[in-house]
Amino acid sequence: MLWHEITIHTREEVAELISTAFHEMGAGGVTIEESGTLNKMRDTSLGQLYDTPLNDIPEGEAVVQAYFADPEDVGDLIRRLEEHVRFVRDELGYDVGQADIRSRVVDEEDWAHSWKQYYKPIRISERLTIKPTWETYEPESADEIVLELDPGMAFGTGTHPTTTLCLRALEREVVPGDDVIDVGTGSGVLAIAAAKLGARRVLALDLDPVAVASAEQNARLNGVDGEVAVTESDLLGVLRGAEAAGGETKPAAADIGVALPVRLVVANILAEVIVLFVDDVFQVLKPGGIYITSGIYKDKEAFVEQALRQAGFEIERVEREQDWVAIVAVKR
């Protein structure tokens, strides 16, 4: 099958914003490759060694590629992308870099499978390791938790700094028996980790039906599909009916599977989206409940913290990796 590939060379801090635009344009898959420079601070806490650059992308830059199956008008897709780039630059105030846009026709094999040779098992924390399904791996200790992952149509390998920050926070915060909500689940890696760390029930939400299918498949691969309920939802929209019913689980709300209020919510999404639903998160959390949120570029940290405090949260701690931030907040 032939696909139309659209590539944009931009800055790391706007790569997720560009990726979101591609998905909204109907892309069948999106990839983000950030700079592999050795000048970048990398996590070496578990003995990782970086002795050669991972790619030739200049420091601070990223390449975002989207794939469209038989679009009627590739030129229209490029025009829509150019409009989004101008919005990100002129209205949101981000540096979009050179924003060079190119397109070409590729065979499905060129992008759907060839990237897998670069995706290897990786130790994320003291207990959590991500293993692609096609690789073999033997746990190093009895308490190591292996997360089997097939990202499918590029919904995340779990190795981006925003995801690793969330995984480490989950390892620290999940208490066995917790009910957890994962907003913007993507490949489902955070929901699966929460379940394997002992959560009783995890509600995994995503607006994209392809991501929902990917997360469901990964939950089955990890044997936690009984604990992880994946539902298509615009942020916490699916819970509004449950809230109106006094927190009871309603089959009409796509079997949300958790008892409201919950003790923990995690969201690895864009800073601009995080601030849109902080009040909703506050409402679905128990007093003393934990909100872990990431996807925050360093220059948006104060922006998100302010929104969290205005909603009634107290900032417990802030974790950083490279230029990305994760915030752990508490409902007091």
Order of helices and strands: EHEEHEHEEEHEHEHEHEHHEHEE
Q: Approximately how much helix is present in the residues?
A: 25-40%
How many helices? The count is: 10
Q: What profile does the largest beta sheet have?
A: 7 strands, mixed
- Strand order in the sheet with the most strands: 10-9-8-11-12-14-13
Can you offer a commentary on this structure?
The structure is a single chain. This protein has about 325 residues and is α/β, with parallel strands linked by helices. The chain has 2 domains: about 1-115, Alpha-Beta Plaits (2-Layer Sandwich), CATH 3.30.70.260; about 120-330, Vaccinia Virus protein VP39 (Rossmann fold, 3-Layer(aba) Sandwich). The protein is about 30% helix and about 30% strand. The chain contains 10 helices and 14 strands. Strands 10-9-8-11-12-14-13 form a 7-stranded mixed β-sheet, sandwiched between helices. A 4-stranded antiparallel β-sheet has the order 2-3-1-4. A 3-stranded mixed β-sheet has the order 5-6-7, covered by helices on one side. Helix 1 packs antiparallel against helix 2 and helix 4 (about 160-175) packs parallel to helix 5. The longest helix is centred in the N-terminal third of the chain and has 17 residues, at about 75-90.
